[in-house]
Write a structure and sequence with these properties.
The chain is of the alpha/beta class. It contains 14 helices and 20 strands. The chain has two domains: 159 residues, Leucine Aminopeptidase, subunit E, domain 1; 319 residues, Zn peptidases (Aminopeptidase), CATH 3.40.630. The strands form four sheets. Strands 7, 8, 9, 10, 11, 14, 15, 16 and 18 form a nine-stranded mixed β-sheet that branches. The chain has a six-stranded mixed β-sheet with strand order 1-6-5-2-4-3, with helices on both faces. The chain has a three-stranded mixed β-sheet with strand order 12-13-17, with helices on one face. Strand 10, helix 9 and strand 11 form a beta-alpha-beta unit. The chain is elongated and about 80 Å long. The structure holds ligand BES, manganese (II) ion and zinc ion.
Length: 495
């Protein structure tokens, strides 16, 4: 879809559809009001008749509006003006897009960017409109023999009453790049395990590196062996697919500026291994590489927007399958850090690949390391599908990530990482065991990782509940690309 910002008055605008808002009680938004004047009060009559009551997310398509050159006018309810905040705005935009896609409109002009949203500026509104529009046309039908029905909509203009400033144009450019990153993340996430293997992810990284001039390095199992990554390698023992450690380096700032390193869990299928998972919904464990996919999506987005920052992506990738060579409960392995791990449950494999990748991350002399992982079912129990779990060894970093998530409508919630939980990982036979029991499962997983991140500022995002949706709407969400890109944009701006 094509996006642009257009300075124009709604009443003079041509096109297939103009989208304007109506508050509860019938008060027209500024753009709706100027349409109404030209249309000899046709809009206010429709509202007075009761066909559009202004209830949040109600929509009504009007044809042949007198005095208006555009083919259609779409009215969307905004709810009470006093309560109109970020969530109401995105609900109204989503509803408008749904209604718009049901019409045959090839292009539309959105006049929702002129609505006052508590605490949010024009750049924010532009970004949200672009991301929501991109989401509304996303289809995952490459593997169907016939493509799914697509919307006719090709062009979306964001109407502004005033001349758009640099901030608006930057917001539009960034939003396009972020939408592309989200689409890549969703696409990779949705691919089945028989296509999206560690080797496939490595090829994707190579392609990304070529298009965006990134440096790419792929470590093979023999390379990892030499580095002593026996924890990571213990996970791929049961698989016919070789593990890969993928590194992508984006240099957008001075060579000497320390990078942000993003580490993404890339388990392309998690059966649990010998500690086999139950069969129900096991297909969803193809999504166990969504952390990795979000790293690729984020790197693509920031490379496209030419962000002035150095960022490294590290992706430990493997399958987790049962087999005669697979790790067994009770096995003890030595990690790259030298610490030994008793594998009491082969299904707690994410932390086993991440710990070696986190040790490896130190060689980039990072300013900050953020890992992203579909790490624990316990995180889904704690936070549901709304917030990602956030853990950090520095409160300031946690606050920055929380703020970025809030701004990007991709929220995280700060979870504790207190030493009090560490003892749950005590082992009689090794330096630690890889599980800490049912109590506080997402926290003990983070505690495990914290033992490998002592030398740098670090945060961990558990995206088990937010990376994909189950049921009728099954599909990857692209989260937390919005949070990560916003965090990096904020960092680049602070420099
Ligand atoms: N990939 C899973 C976590 C997961 C489970 C994400 C369900 C989303 C939905 C991870 O590898 C895993 O299996 N974790 C175990 C850890 C346990 C054995 C300590 C879990 O959460 O059950
Ligand atoms: Mn697992
Ligand atoms: Zn897993």
């Amino acid at each position: 879809m094509e996006f642009s910002i257009k300075q124009s008055h709604s009443e003079k605008q041509r096109g297939a559809c103009l989208v304007v808002g109506v508050y509860a009680g019938g008060k027209l938004s500024p753009a709706a009001l100027s349409l109404d004047r030209v249309a000899q009060h046709h809009l206010s009559e429709v509202v007075a008749r009761g066909d559009m009551n202004g209830k949040l997310a109600n929509t009504l398509v009007l044809h042949h509006v007198p005095g208006i050159i555009a083919e259609r006018v779409l009215l969307v309810g905004l709810g009470k003006a006093a309560e109109f905040a970020a969530k109401q705005f995105t609900d109204a935009v989503r509803a408008s897009l749904d209604a718009l896609h049901k019409t045959a409109s090839k292009d539309a002009v959105f006049y929702l960017t002129d609505l006052a949203v508590k605490g949010r500026d024009e750049a924010w509104k532009i970004k949200q409109c672009v991301l929501l529009a991109a989401e509304s046309v996303f289809r995952c039908d490459q593997l169907k023999s016939k493509p799914a029905d697509a919307s006719a909509l090709r062009k979306l203009q964001l109407g502004c009453a005033d001349k758009p400033g640099i901030a608006a144009q930057t917001a539009l450019d960034q939003a396009r790049a972020i939408a592309g990153g989200i689409a890549l993340t969703k696409h990779l996430g949705n691919l089945p395990g028989n296509i999206c293997t560690p080797t496939y992810l490595a090829e994707q990284a190579r392609t990304l590196a070529k298009t965006h001039k990134l440096k790419v390095t792929i470590l093979e199992e023999k390379d990892m062996e030499k580095l002593g990554m026996h924890s990571l390698l213990s996970v791929s023992h049961g698989s016919r697919q070789p593990a890969k450690l993928i590194t992508l380096e984006y240099q957008g700032a001075d060579k000497n500026q320390k990078p942000v390193v993003l580490v993404g869990k890339g388990i392309t299928f998690d059966s649990g291994g010998i500690s086999l998972k139950p069969g129900a919904e096991m297909d969803e464990m193809k999504y166990d590489m969504c952390g990795a996919a979000s790293v690729l999506g984020t790197l693509q987005a920031i490379a496209e927007m030419k962000l002035k920052l150095n960022v490294v992506g590290v992706i430990p990738s493997s399958e987790n399958l049962p087999d005669g060579a697979a790790s067994k409960p009770g096995d003890i392995v030595k990690s790259m850090s030298g610490q030994t791990i008793e594998i009491l449950n082969t299904d707690a494999e994410g932390r086993l690949v991440l710990c070696d990748a986190l040790t490896y991350a130190a060689r980039f002399e990072p300013d900050t390391v953020v890992d992203i992982a579909t790490l624990t079912g316990a995180c889904v129990i704690a936070l549901g599908h709304v917030a990602s779990g956030l853990f950090s060894n520095e409160d300031k970093l946690a606050r920055e990530l929380l703020a970025a998530g809030d701004e990007a409508q991709d929220r995280a919630w700060h979870m504790p990482l207190w030493d009090d939980y560490q003892q749950q990982l005590d082992s009689n036979f090794a330096d630690m065991q890889n599980i800490g029991g049912r109590a506080g499962g997402s926290i003990t997983a983070a505690c495990f990782l914290s033992r490998f991140t002592k030398d740098y500022r670090w945060a961990h995002l558990d995206i088990a509940g937010t990376a994909w949706k189950s049921g009728k709407d099954k599909g990857a969400t692209g989260r937390p690309v919005p949070l990560l890109t916003q965090y990096l944009i904020n960092r680049a701006a602070a420099k």
